[in-house]
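DATA SHEET
Item: assembly model
Revision: 1
Owner: S.N.
Input lines:
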Amino acid sequence: MNSNKSKRGRAAPGEVYAVIKRIAAENGRDFVWHYVLAAAFLAAIAGTTAFTAWIMRDVIDEIFYRQRADLIVLISLSIAAAFVLRGIATYGQAVILAKVGNNLVARYQRRLFDHLMKLDMEFFSTTRSGQVAAQINENVSGIRSILNITVTSIARDFVSLIGLVGVMVFQDPILSLFALLIGPPLVFFVSHLMRRLRRLNHDAILVNSRLIGAMQEAIQGMAIVKAFTMEDQLSGKMHDLVADSEARSNKIARVSERLSPISEMLGGFVFAAVIGYAGYRATFGAQPPGTIVAFLTALILAYDPARRLARTQVGLERALVNARMIYEVLDTVPRQEDAADAGQLEVGKGDIRFDSVSFRYGPEAPVLHDLSFLAPGGKTTAIVGASGAGKSTLIALLQRFYDVSGGLIEIDGQDISTVTKRSLRQQIAYVSQHPFLFEGSIGDNIRYGRPDATDTEVEAAARQAFADDFIREQPKGYDTPVGESGATLSGGQRQRISIARALVRNAPILLLDEATSALDNESEARVQAALATATKGRTTIVIAHRLSTVINADHIVVLDHGRLVEEGTHAGLMADPNSIYARFHNLHDEAGLGLLDDTAETALEEAQRAGAAAGS
Ligand code: ADP
């Protein structure tokens, strides 16, 4: 469905109608009665407008020319009635169409968010989040105009136009012919404009969403911005984007506003021709002036809807670009859908086995090679390796954020690619390196671990994670909102909240990505104590950055450039003084580091090189 053609913003005219058809097909049915009612109001508007022009002949001929006093009241009242009806109908259609438009925006917002939730990690690792959000926002409002524009313009202006042209033809067929000559050049010019604007609009939307996305990123990363005094650089970049966006908007205005001089000019020709011909005819023939006044009124009244219709086409063009971009997201098929016969994962002992697992992110070189090991059920397995060795990838594969390229991962003998992703992830609790707190209260943030957890369970988890004390000290306790104007939490406190979230999930498997950044001693001790509770009795795989974690682990797996180079217990690996692990550990001890930070990882690389040199 998602053609490459549309990505580049060059849509064939056929595609334009396909988009309108699709929007109507997907949403139209629920709004049929709204449209019927709106159409009735619109028809009333068109009818009363045409009536106003038509009655002009009687106004002139009957009232002024023949001086029929008996008709004065009737004609005046009927004009007043037409205007009252028109007012009511205008109100009715505007309210109905706004309601439909708002509902449509809500529908697409819901659909887009739900669809984003379904997309695979690959989509998010290759897309900038702020930009996606900005693009969605911009495009959703575009889709509202598509319906409002088509319906309002087609129904109100088109119907009005037909009515008025009807009056013109009825009053004077020959003069009408003059007036209608404006049609073909106008249509030709509008379609030429539309083709030009399609590309301009597409690019402008992209630049705008980049701009808003970049702004959002700068605000989110304000601490880094200030720390690295990046303000001037970022402002410079932002000003470039703003200038680009401004220039594009100006270009769009220059192109689309070409419509005004052209339609004014064509309109002027028509008026001149009509008045010239009618004046000539009036001079040489005797005809009451009513017909020509009615004709001119219709022509004047028709001029606005005709101009609006032409303008609408141009606006519609942008809305269509918006709609196509929305469908690009909606049509992105999530990869690695569950197999049709996927079962539920049943976890007993909780053994996790990597069996000859290979993995590559894309066409590039593989990042994991033929990796096999067992993380025994209920025990803690520490993954050690230099940065870039593939530790995070391994954790991602276990959660099926990506599918393995070769081999398989088994939990209690069940291949994880044969069970539903939901059942797999429900058995896993994950504590990331950077604790992420979502909008909402502290309590909400813990409860995301298990939505049906009771308050007592949430509090129990917080106590186990050594978080209960500081949460109670917050202004509203568990109900304190996190983030702006709410609780200001330290790094250690955030970590303990995310550990409480993992604890309340009560899953048999725990995945831990240890923080590399140091906390103050007290926080550190509490986070460690919280983690010790969390790992008890669970199959834990931890990306270890702390020496104590590695030493206390039941099993250690040493990764090097995506390969498993050593595994065993601390004692077992230390027994061989030539093992990479032992060298690394000794180097590390000499350095007196408590944390396997970058320095330590460099030490590990050195140890690996020394090992390789000794082996060769
Ligand atoms: P570690 O966690 O040990 O630091 P990672 O698993 O993050 O290592 O990375 C292993 C390798 O995979 C690195 O070379 C990294 O550049 C690459 N990599 C990680 N994430 C992606 C991704 N989303 N797309 C492409 N390559 C990636």
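QC remark: DSSP finds 23 helices and ten strands in the chain.
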